[in-house]
Amino acid sequence: MKLEKIIERGYYWIDDQARQSSLALARKLSRRSFLSRLGMMLAGAAAFPLLPVARSFAQSSVEEVGDPQSCEYWRYCAMSGTLCSCCGGTYTSCPPGSEASPITWVGTCRNPVDGRDYLMSYNDCCGKSVCSRCGCHNTEGDKPVYFNSNSNSVLWCFGTENTSYHCTVSLVLGTTDETN
Amino acid sequence: MRVTTPLALALALFVPLASAQIVPEEISIDTMPDPGPNWFISKTGNGGYIFDATTGEMQGLLSLSRYTPAVTMWQPRREFYATESYLSRGVRGERTDLVTIYDFENLSPVAEIVIPNHMARLSIRNHLGLMNNGRHLAVLNMNPGHSVSIVDVEDRVFIYEASTPGCAVIMPVADSDFLQLCGDGTLQLIQLDISGFEENRVRSDIFFNVMEDAIFDRTARSANGWYLITHAGTVYEVGSQGSEIIINDSWSVLAEGEESWRPGGDEFITAHRDTGLLYVAMHEGEVDTHHVPGEEIWVLDANSGRRVHRIELEVPATSIMVTQEAAPKLIVADDDGGTHVYDALTFVFERTIVTPGAAMFEDF
């Protein structure tokens, strides 16, 4: 009974706050201003899929051949590290219990199936001991550490809770003809 | 029965007599003798092994963190300086980056200076640089933007962290200045004041293109500055004069018709400062094979730009280092984890040293 009263009071409080802030907003803004902001929001939402990141996710999956546990696999042309596909993950997923680093290095690899160049993101999976299976060190387009966005020598466990390196995945971000 | 009884009695009497003559041994702990010529550190994933290249004998071990990029020293204070990074639970938990000071005598830690947890945890020799005044140590950071932590190793204090966007590698010049390589094709000179704070920062003109022919992030100290080399084998000697960056005319390690040869490996370039001899691990390969170990070591006279010798190797070399003595040794780490010693002037193979695979070497 007591709990119900507390919840009821809480609802009243929320209602009251909402009413007061609506009134305050109405006093400050004209109706035209509100409509213009709403319009901007709608236009922005419509434009969002035009951004390159959204486009790359919108395309259909990539057709590919080969063994993802081999360093020769086309996605690994600028890969350096241990292949997550040999460590309980896949080339796009981290093994159980590891953390995916949001910050990556990039490379450009040609898919032998369609002959197109793809923009690749190499994400490290972190927070566990190094897997040390299927070591792979390819250096196509690799640059020195002072040009770190294209350097595969760097340990990319940044922005993760634990910064130890476990293995690396390779994600397709898009084709280079899309980004041109 | 008649024979065995007297024999047993004789043995029972003899054994205590014999053991009474042996003084029981006691365990002791050695201290490091004064470093001799051609001593070097072989930095491995297991720490820094100290060897005498002349005899091949190990002298002691520096226990370093798994993430230590490099180790250096300052002879007048008889100290080693290493950057280290530890996670409290091994592969997880709280991270602590620090500069650890080890003494010569016991190779033991005598001081620790905590630095920001931004250290670039890569095994690259020039991610650590002690200024030529022996006081300020620069540690390269990556978080993932580049910066440099400055530590006063004499007063044992962290000074500050300087942001160095787009620039890495630490090449000490003058008294307390250092040069850096930058991704826009320039060099950066940072000059420190007497307290270790940044006093001045200068950028050179653009002199290389990182996309077309990048300069390696592995460099070699010369008599007046540093040797840089590009992926295609072009050498620059750079230095400073006051606040001016000096970039000398470039030359190629390749003769005509040798375009298929390329420098490469890990710490694949080293120089003997007094003679101006430059040693570069070379392999035959395509563009972007810059991490391939060297099938040969080319010895070049940096004063004339001419090649002196080609050392052919049975197992390709990943890292090399020449000691700075008048009778120097060339130390070579091979791709199979072997470590070998050559006479650096006659290029004759002298010995193989058994040690865990070396990532790099540091001269004493």
Automatic annotation (TrEMBL), chain A:
Highest taxon, organism lineage: Bacteria
Catalytic site: 105 (tryptophylquinone 6'-substrate hemiaminal intermediate), 124 (proton acceptor)
Cross-link Tryptophan tryptophylquinone (Trp-Trp): residue positions: 105-156
A single BP term in Gene Ontology: amine metabolic process
Any one cellular-component term (Gene Ontology): periplasmic space
GO molecular function annotation: aliphatic amine dehydrogenase activity
Alphabetized Gene3D superfamilies for the sequence: Methylamine/Aralkylamine dehydrogenase light chain
Pfam hit, one: Me-amine-dh_L
Cystine pairs: 71-136, 77-109, 84-167, 86-134, 87-131, 94-125, 126-157
InterPro entries: Amine_DH_Ltc, MADH/AADH_L_sf, MADH/AADH_Ltc_C_dom, TAT_signal
Site (Transition state stabilizer): 168
Major localization listed first in the record, in broad terms: periplasm
Subcellular location: Periplasm
Residue ranges occupied by any Methylamine/Aralkylamine dehydrogenase light chain C-terminal domain in the UniProt entry: 66-174
Residues with Tryptophylquinone modification: 105
Alphabetical keyword list: Disulfide bond, Electron transport, Oxidoreductase, Periplasm, Signal, Transport, TTQ
Similarity comment text for this entry: Belongs to the aromatic amine dehydrogenase light chain family.
Subunit structure: Heterotetramer of two light and two heavy chains.
Protein name: Methylamine dehydrogenase (Amicyanin) light chain
Originating species: SAR86 cluster bacterium
From TrEMBL, chain B:
InterPro entries in the cross-refs: Metamine_DH_Hvc (IPR009451), Quino_amine_DH_bsu (IPR011044), WD40/YVTN_repeat-like_dom_sf (IPR015943)
Pfam families from the UniProt entry: Me-amine-dh_H
Residues making up the signal peptide according to the UniProt record: 1-20
Record flagged with keyword Transmembrane helix: no
Gene3D superfamilies: YVTN repeat-like/Quinoprotein amine dehydrogenase
Keyword vocabulary terms for this entry: Disulfide bond, Electron transport, Oxidoreductase, Periplasm, Signal, Transport
Compartment list: Periplasm
One Gene Ontology term of the molecular function aspect: aliphatic amine dehydrogenase activity
Top-rank taxon, per record: Bacteria
GO CC field: periplasmic space
Disulfide bonds: 167-182
Family: Belongs to the aromatic amine dehydrogenase heavy chain family.
Name of the protein in its database record: Amine dehydrogenase
Organism (species): SAR86 cluster bacterium
UniProt lineage: Bacteria, Pseudomonadati, Pseudomonadota, Gammaproteobacteria, SAR86 cluster
